[in-house]
Design goal:
Layout (H helix, E strand, L loop, with lengths): L1 H19 L24 E4 L45 E9 L10 E6 L11 E3 L5 E7 L2 E7 L13 H5 L4 H8 L6 E3 L4 E8 L3 E9 L9 E7 L5 E3 L4 H9 L11 E7 L2 E8 L12 H10 L9 E3 L12 E3 L4 E2 L4 E3 L5 E9 L8 E7 L8 H6 L5 E3 L5 E7 L2 E9 L3 H7 L9 H9 L9 E7 L4 E8 L3 E9 L8 E8 L4 E8 L38 E7 L2 E9 L5 E7 L2 E2 L5 E3 L4 E10 L3 E8 L10 E6 L12 E4 L5 E6 L3 E5 L10 H13 L2 E4 L5 E7 L4
Parallel strand pairs: 2-8, 9-16, 9-17, 18-24, 25-33, 34-40
Antiparallel strand pairs: 1-8, 2-5, 3-4, 3-6, 6-7, 9-12, 10-11, 10-13, 13-14, 13-15, 18-21, 19-20, 19-22, 22-23, 25-28, 26-27, 26-29, 29-32, 30-31, 30-33, 34-37, 35-36, 35-38, 38-39
Helix pairs in contact: 1-4
Amino acid sequence: MRLLFLKIFLCFSGLLFGFAVLTETAFLQDAAPTPRPQPTAERSATPRPKKKSPTNKTSNAVTIEPALLDDELMTTSNLSSNGIPRQTPAPANSTVRGRVFYTDTGRAVKRAPIMLMSERGIGGPGNTPSALTDNDGNFQMKNVQAGVYYAMVNAPGVVSPMAFLDFSKMRGGASEAEEFEKAAEGFEKIIIDGITDLDVQIPARRGGAIGGRVTYDNGDPAIGVKVEILRKVKGGKFLPVIPNFGAIFALMTGSGGYQTDDRGVYRFAGLPAGEYIVKVTESATHSEPGDGRRSHREAEVMFGVVGGNSLLNVFYQDAFDSKSANVINVELGQEIVEINLTIPTRSLYKIEGKIVSRKDKSPVKARVTIKREGEQDVHSIFSDLGGRSDQSAVSDENGNWKFKELPKGNYKLLIEPAQSENEYREFQGDYSHYGNMANTNAQNSLPPRPKLAKKIREITLEDRDLSEMVIELGSGATISGTVVVENNEKMPRRVVITAFSADNELSSSDSVSNHDFSGDVMAMNGMGNSNVLRSSANVMRTPPGAGAADGGFKLENVSEGKIDIFIHVEDENYFVKSARADGVDLLSGKVEIKDGDNIKNVQIVLSKAVGTLKGKFVDENGEAMKNALFTLVPTDAARRGSSTFFRVVKTDAGGEFETKLAPMEYAVVFVELETIPRKTDELDEWYNKAVKDAQKVTIEAGRTENLTVRKIKK
């Protein structure tokens, strides 16, 4: 996510530079994805035949229909000398002219930046055409590439798709292009063929605004504190609002509405209609940076983002948690003022302790990350910028660590032991060892250190410091065995076996492979997609070449507690038939693991006797749901014990789908990540209820079942 913000920041910086030197059009890399607004005013789009110059005429000219804009043009001229297809750039000869106007008055939006955002979001085709409107709201963009675009008016107070973007999903591994498509559902598409000119009328809707003043309890203005406006979405989750590109620029430079001015005043405009809460965060660093992070911390101080994701929060109206916050209803064009907050004087405390090995009580080098319990549904944009730097501590040579300036409350500590000296340096923010062969050789000459398992510790901070806390880490459990295919069939490309703890933290992962990954440049890309229970950010991709070729696997340092064994087969022509150890079915439910356990002789059996499901996904009106997702969940409660048998299916541009599955009965479940529970036990119960009334389908080996999936609004 920090990379995404950097891309957006560079995009907007380039745009400003382009306007500064009076270029007619600034070309930028595609900008960030985005979610949905209110109904838009009608936009007229009148194609105008383009005068073709002789230089544009070729003997094999191609006309691209709008429906074919996403397809590659493959001709014999597009083949390289070795016969590998090359992608032909789409034509970029269209001129787009138009006018931007306010929907409430019809008057021109003067001197404002406007961009055509590709429907694919960041990484979409070509550059991002952009221009500056004149005194009458008119603009012109030349040499626009063929594609499907959305207009983004980057004027303060105007609603844009940026205001609907769910950054939390993208941080969890969701596709930027898919999230952008969802974001822009309420905005009209502009289809450009790259050949003819286009005249357009772009409506600009004024959003709502929230403003106020933040003070300390002695009446002094709270200068430079971070302010976030959080919009309520499905499931009670609150998302930070980034109204437009200008807000990103302000965020990255520590200016604008995201922090109070010298009077303690803040104001956010361009808000879509909805329910909001206001969150204020005092800048604080709860831990000292390691040697390698000090330079990063200095840069964060310079840009004003250091400490932005601290745990010193106040919500309107003077509440310490989001559940007690006042919800503010905002309508388009509505100005809400006097949303004032007071930061009280309160006692702050410290937590410190020591991390040792359970076996010999020797000190352990580790990273400790602290999280506030009860705020999982509130997402902060400053967390995306700062990562966990402000909420992580690194133990020293003696295993000592400390957090400071913490308010009282319930917390969760995640302890991650460093498995090597280089990893310990990375915990401290020092990556200088990369590419340093001398360092690598020195590390290889050291005796291997005992590997330890991660641990989660829950604590309550009352009206006193917590000192001399000793946290012992064990070696965890070991799970080993083999993967075979029944009837001595050939092994698939790769099988990844992962053990997840109840908190969905990755415990251990290993793979078996029937493929030479040397020279492969692609990482495994399917694990998160076949398991809706896991965020792909939590799944450690097995590095190329790491998979054992003899069918053997070994999971080490598996954290104690209840775990979920998740098996991903990187080939849909196979399915997991069974996974057993000494007669115990490892896929029928959570497996209880104790520190020091050694589970051997696990046999995972794969089968190629899959069935096929194909069909179409439609809404309540019978309209095709393109690029939509639904989940196939086993109706057999025993099979639901492991997320291995869950399958997420995505439709194509026509709403059609086809997938191969293990033979069994499935329920069609519509999973919205905003609404499902996060705790494992609650999630299991949620699926149990969802399966009861869901559409069912039975898959048989070697047969194809046709199904029309219908999504009914509740």
